[in-house]
Amino acid sequence: MIRLLNVAADLFADELYNKLAAVGLTDIRPGHGCVFGNIDPENGSRLTELAERANMTKQSVGEVTSDLEERGYVERVADPNDGRAKVIRLTARGRQAYDTGRRLIDELEQEWSEQFGEYRVVALREALEVVTAERVGALEPTSTSKTSRDSIGV
Q1: Predicted structure pTM score
Q2: What separation, in Å, do the N-terminal and C-terminal C-alpha atoms of the chain show?
Q3: Around Cβ 128, how many Cβ atoms within 10 Å?
Q4: Of the four, 28, 35, 36, 127, which is 20 to 30 A from 135 by CA?
Q5: Cα distance between residue 15 and residue 13, in whole Å
Q6: Neighbouring C-beta atoms of residue 131, cutoff 10 Å
Q7: Per-residue pLDDT at 148 exceeds 50
């Protein structure tokens, strides 16, 4: 099963990054997903939160954050609740890339639904949500998840 999950994740990621490149986001790479996939898009997130959500070390996520900061996608600002801490938040450019990425993920899920069957993609998503609920429970499901379920009456 681990091999199947890894191959499926790689296929999805490859298709996503091809789509990102096609819309001009050629400087976003798969490693940036630990930030883009885990950041609170409205308020930003602390580095420790990003690392915990990504199941990575703080140092590794810090390197990715620095790279995204150099590219103009995120900025580090003082945490309004704790002046000693920093919050990583999306810049205007980062917000645009984040929104584009979410849209492309939704499109890709729809394409997979058309290619492999909507019931399979919905079942896969639901199974993964159950399996990973404890770890990713704090993250909101994507809009495709709800839309797909609603369209087939789940």
Answers
A1: 0.82
A2: 26
A3: 13
A4: 28
A5: 5
A6: 11
A7: no
Instruction: Give alpha helix (H) positions in the chain.
Output: 2-22, 33-36, 47-54, 58-70, 92-116, 118-136, 143-152
Residue 28 pLDDT? 95
- Total number of domains constituting the chain: 1
* Mean pLDDT across the chain: 89
| Residue 84, C-beta contacts closer than 8 angstroms, at least 6 positions apart | none
Q: What is the CATH number of the domain that holds 128?
A: 1.10.10.10
CA angle at residue 8 from 94 to 140, to 5 degrees?
A: 45
Phi, psi for residue 86 in degrees, rounded to 5:
-115, 150
Tell me the two tokens of residue 65.
Answer: 């954050």
Find out whether 65 and 47 touch, Cβ atoms under 8 Å.
yes
pLDDT at residue 82, as a whole number: 87
The residues, any chain, with a CB within 8 Å of residue 32's CB and separated by 6 or more, are 64, 67, 68, 73
- Stretch 115-142: mean pLDDT: 84
pLDDT at position 137, please?
Answer: 65
